[in-house]
Design brief:
362 residues; twelve-stranded mixed beta sheet; four-stranded mixed beta sheet; binds zinc ion; N-terminal domain of TfIIb; flat; alpha+beta
Length: 362
């Protein structure tokens, strides 16, 4: 494709939701490799005019109602209950979480319009290769699982998240305890015993947080989001519908306020850990921490995640790939037969070694 052939695509010079190819009228999808829209029929590429790195917003704005997302619709999967936001020009209508086509449109509103987006960087093909390699490495997974990693089982879903910044200043006081091993002579014999020493602590702790990530959707387990990190939240660019072409977005089910509350709890945990790290102790008796939060700001963005699903013995297993870095996370079913033979093999080996030693000594 010649660069001169490319046309500039932007939300401003085309009617919202008309993402048809100007050359042939065909449907276009977002191409992660090119970071452009690609026509599904004639292959033409269209640039998405967007170079705006989004800025943090003051937390006060979050407490008021934000802009409503209007150009998309909410669909619900009748099989697994997942709620997905799909641009109404979406071509394939399969649930990314369970793969069924049992999706119906709801009258629900999509909620807050994302401020920014981290567009998918790696394509479905590369993601499939990553997933195949990962599945093959799962020694105890059943063969049928390894064979299920196919491109049509992998879907890209944008996930809504909040990132929060804050400077914190905390005053604390508490009591800790440390065990010491001491020795004494009892009836002429040396004996050890434990002596516990209690001590009071107090002081001030300053901790600055930058882009702490909180999920606004609970569709993906929080341990997965934790393990898939980092996402380049500093590189988030202004949201445009074009990035959603051919992809879905997970519906958010936690509002900004509850996400901020969750974030404050996470920050408080981290502050407590930092305070305790300064001391040599074995257990905590009590710790009071009074924290002042200053210059809080946030970003509300979509992060790219590929979801692959797999049904094994009526149970749904999902694996997830960071759509920017390619990092993969997931649980796989374990083949009882394979585990049995491994354990059997180990026991057999131990048995043979014992028999060998026995024979050598007789
Ligand atoms: Zn075309
Ligand atoms: Zn589903």
């Amino acid at each position: 494709m010649n660069v001169t052939e490319e046309k500039i695509y932007s939300d401003d010079n085309l009617k919202v939701n008309s993402h048809k190819c100007p050359n042939c009228g065909g449907e276009s999808v977002f191409d992660p490799k090119e970071q452009k829209l690609r026509c599904l029929y004639c292959g033409s590429l269209f640039e998405i005019k967007n170079d705006i790195i989004i800025e943090e917003r003051n937390l006060d704005e979050l407490l008021q109602k934000g802009k409503v997302w209007t150009e998309v619709e909410v669909y619900q999967c009748q099989s697994c209950g997942a709620k997905e936001i799909i641009d109404n020009q979406e071509v394939s209508m399969k649930c990314p979480f369970c793969g069924t086509s049992n999706i119906i449109k709801t009258s629900e509103l999509p909620g807050l319009k994302p401020q920014g987006v981290i567009p998918f960087k790696i394509g479905a093909k590369t993601t499939t290769q990553i997933a195949i390699k990962w599945a093959k490495g799962k020694v105890y997974a059943p063969k049928v699982f390894k064979n299920s990693v196919k491109p049509n089982n992998i879907h890209g879903v944008y996930n809504p998240i909040f990132t929060f910044d804050a400077s914190t200043k905390s005053d604390y006081n508490g009591q800790l305890a440390k065990n010491h091993i001491r020795y004494r002579i009892v009836n002429g014999r040396r004996e050890s015993y434990t002596e516990t020493k209690y001590f009071y602590i107090q002081g001030q702790q300053v901790v600055n947080f930058d882009d702490l990530l909180i999920q606004a959707s609970t569709m993906i387990p929080s341990y997965v989001i934790k393990d898939l990190q980092p996402f380049p939240t500093k590189k988030a660019i202004q949201y445009k519908t074009a990035y959603l072409k051919g992809y879905a977005a997970s519906s958010y089910n936690k509002d900004g306020n509850s996400c901020w509350d969750e974030c404050k709890n996470e920050m408080k945990n981290r502050i407590e850990n930092q305070i305790l790290k300064k001391y040599n102790y074995d257990y905590k008796i009590f710790l009071n921490v009074k924290t002042l939060f200053l210059s809080e700001s946030y970003k509300y963005i979509l992060i790219p995640i590929y979801i692959g699903h797999y049904n094994y013995k009526k149970k749904l297993y999902n694996f997830y790939v960071n759509g920017y870095t390619g990092k993969i996370v997931g649980k796989t079913p374990v083949s009882a037969l394979k585990v049995f033979f491994t354990v059997f093999g180990i026991l057999l080996t131990i048995g043979l070694i014992i028999a060998f030693i026995f024979l050598m000594n007789s």
